[in-house]
Specification:
heterodimer; A: alpha/beta; Rossmann fold; five-stranded mixed sheet; 14 helices; about 20% strand; globular; B: alpha/beta; seven-stranded mixed sheet
Chain lengths: ~400, ~290
């Protein structure tokens, strides 16, 4: 065995894989044992990988007849107690929305991957976009909470897929894994050897006498225990507004109580849900706020800016929804301005403006399928830094 | 003399009595279909804990809430898709789908034909009352021609689906039809469907008396049920109006039964073979390494 082989022998965990491949590996590592999907560019590799991986671990892969059937089968499998995943892109994500609302309302854990491509409608299937930021939060009708995770690298897709399952099981909720076409089909060398060992989080299962069990009676953290079919609880699950006992109700007090609990269940656990990354925000005059491939470009833009003597920083929400407001306020407290480069006509910038109130928020909005380059971001940061400095002097 | 050793059937043992009174209209045939289903489940000795009932939206969709089992009232048209996930993930459960003609043939039509093709072990009970009853009586894919509904004031001008022919054409390995007038026959058909080791599609012709019957002046619920006696319901209506509804009669009983492989079993078998092959290959590789 030569030196190189010897070295590699200890690096069995180093792999050259795409983002979609990392997602499939992360899902299996997290204990996902069911996938239902429908072919769509640019997410199909998640399905293709899992069609091979799941039979190896006694899981089930099924290609369904359409996008709606895919999310429905995933929720059905999860109602049976099995961790389940589906993956799609824009048009398919739109089709899935009604049933995502069902999973949110009936509190059925599951993970939905949405690889963002150009839109609206069929859009640009092979080109990247970040146009589903708002849809991922508000896509289904009515009021419901949602957790959306936005990884920005192949390795992070692996980690965040595992975390998506942990959050889904812990908080009895669908979780959306949102990343763009570039990250999905980008192939990077990743070392999974130091990856967080998945805790294999299980949902809180019902225990105790079945007569006393109420499927939507919550503990102090707002998360009700779920029953597994076959364990003697025999409960009713419905998309109708329901009372603690799971049966439909239109009683205003019962709806206020139960829907109210649902809508605040993440608020009670924000410390464990929020996640973000900051780069050089401490002394930054301009903080860039963005996700996914635009954040990768921003990281390089910071280096360019700093070389030109412009103090730039990055705030990158990893938990995109609920948006980590407090962390954003902290990261931008000393900044004179904020720049939001995003591959859409203006979505993330709306949320950032809302949170930051009077602070100057500029944006680069790009929706032609071309990623925003580091140079473009650096130039805009520089002019923004100069403009705000001049303004400051005039005062 | 034949001595029946099975305990007597008491439908209340299978119902959530706290949900009574139920919300069905007087004269509605859905309760008869529900009773026949529970009777068949009782006869087969299916444990309530191992029974999962998935239903869609509409009058038929509401029935799951009354059954003392693991019940799932899902989105409009999608119960077969939810049930596919549930049955694949939990082959130990007995999964029954209750759906209606609108739920199953209109908004959920794609799931029906693919469930028929896939042949996963599921029992699908489609209660056909020829109308969207829950929403007030609109035309459905099974409304007979020239019938009046709130959205066909001129009389329905669309031909209706023959759901059983559709299911058979899509490859269903078990297809049957029965009317609510013949309760023991309906129970026997459902029982045969539950015992079938694959996808079983059962159409139950039931009467919507309050909305569809009233609108079309079909008489009392008793008169409507009696009219089913010929087993050929739409054609039996012919004498009530001048316009003929459809030329073909609707046969009842088991219409199709074939022995195709069950999807879940076939999938798991193929997966086990793949795992065994991989393990053998791994062992061989390990031996090679040693040498």
């Amino acid at each position: 065995m030569n030196a190189i082989d010897k070295g590699l022998a200890h690096k069995g965990s180093v792999r050259l894989i795409s983002g979609n491949h990392a997602c499939a590996l992360g899902a299996v590592a997290a204990g996902c044992r069911f996938f239902a999907g429908y072919p769509i560019t640019p997410s199909s590799e998640v399905a293709e990988r899992l069609s091979r991986l799941l039979p190896e671990v006694d899981g089930v892969f099924v290609q369904m007849e359409d996008e709606i059937a895919s999310i429905a089968a995933v929720i059905g499998a999860s109602m049976g107690g099995v961790k389940a995943l589906t993956a799609t892109s824009g048009p398919g994500f739109s089709l899935k929305q009604e049933n995502i609302g069902y999973a949110a309302g009936a509190e059925i854990p599951c993970v939905i991957v949405n690889v963002m491509r150009g839109g609206p409608s069929t859009g640009m299937p092979t080109r990247p976009a970040q146009g589903d930021i708002m849809q991922s939060r508000w896509g289904s009708h009515g009021d419901y909470p949602m957790i959306v995770l936005a990884p920005a690298s192949v390795r992070e897709i692996y980690d965040e897929t595992i975390r998506a399952f942990e959050l889904a099981e812990t908080y009895r909720t669908p979780v959306i894994l949102l990343y763009d076409q570039v990250i999905a089909q980008l192939t990077e060398t990743v070392d999974l050897g130091d990856a967080k060992k998945p805790a294999n989080v299980e949902r809180r299962w019902a225990s105790g006498p079945s007569e006393a069990y109420q499927p939507y009676a919550a503990n102090e953290d707002g998360i009700p225990a779920m029953s597994r079919p076959g364990n003697g609880y025999r409960v009713h699950t419905t998309g109708l507004n329901h009372a603690e006992n799971g049966f439909p109700t239109q009683d205003p007090e019962a709806v206020t109580r139960n829907l109210g609990r649902l809508l605040t269940k993440f608020d009670r656990n924000r410390g464990k849900i929020d996640s973000w990354e900051t780069v050089a925000c401490d002394d930054a005059d301009v903080v860039i706020v963005t996700i996914g491939i635009s954040a990768r470009a921003a990281t390089r833009a910071i280096e360019i800016c700093r070389a030109r003597g412009v103090r730039a920083g990055l705030f990158r929400p990893i938990t995109l929804w609920p948006f980590p407001e407090k962390a954003l306020l902290d990261a931008t407290a000393k900044a004179r301005a904020v720049l939001v480069p995003e591959m859409n006509a203006g979505q993330l910038s709306l949320e950032v403006e809302r949170i930051l109130g009077g602070k100057q928020v500029d944006a680069i909005h790009r929706f032609n399928g071309e990623p925003i380059t580091p140079a473009e971001i650096a130039d805009r940061v520089e002019s923004l830094a100069k403009a705000t400095m001049t303004k400051g002097k005039k005062k | 003399m034949i001595v029946d050793s099975a305990p007597a059937f008491d439908v209340r043992e299978y119902l959530r009595m706290q949900m009574m009174p139920h919300f069905l209209c007087p004269g509605c045939g859905h309760g008869i279909a529900l009773r026949a289903l529970l009777w068949a489940i009782h006869e087969l000795g299916i444990e309530k804990d191992k029974l999962a009932v998935v239903s869609g939206i509409g009058c038929a969709g509401r029935l799951s809430a009354y059954i003392d089992a693991n019940t799932f009232h899902v989105t409009h048209g999608r119960p077969l898709a939810y049930a596919t996930g549930l049955a694949l993930a939990r082959p130990d459960l007995h999964v029954v789908v209750i759906t209606g003609d609108g739920d199953c043939l209109a908004i959920g039509g794609n799931h029906l034909i693919h469930a028929c093709r896939r042949n996963l072990k599921l029992t699908c009970l489609m209660l056909n009352n020829e109308v969207y009853g829950m929403t007030g009586g609109q035309v459905s894919p099974t409304t007979s021609e020239m019938r009046l509904t709130t959205t066909t004031p001129l009389g329905n001008s669309e031909p209706n689906f023959d759901a059983c022919a559709l299911a058979a054409a899509a490859g269903a390995s078990f297809v049957g039809r029965e009317v609510t007038h013949h309760v023991p026959k309906l129970k026997e058909l459902i029982r045969a469907g539950l015992e079938h080791p694959g996808f079983a599609f059962i159409e139950v012709l039931t009467d919507c008396t309050e909305i569809f019957g009233r609108k079309n002046e079909l008489g009392s619920s008793a008169e409507m049920v009696l009219r089913q006696k010929s087993d050929l319901r739409p054609s039996a209506y012919r004498d009530t109006v001048d316009t003929p509804f459809r030329s073909n009669d609707l046969p009842t009983g088991i219409l199709t039964k074939t022995g195709r492989p069950e999807y879940g079993t076939a999938y798991r078998k193929a997966a086990a073979v793949q795992r065994a092959n991989k393990a053998a290959k791994g062992a061989a590789g390990a031996d090679k390494g040693k040498a």
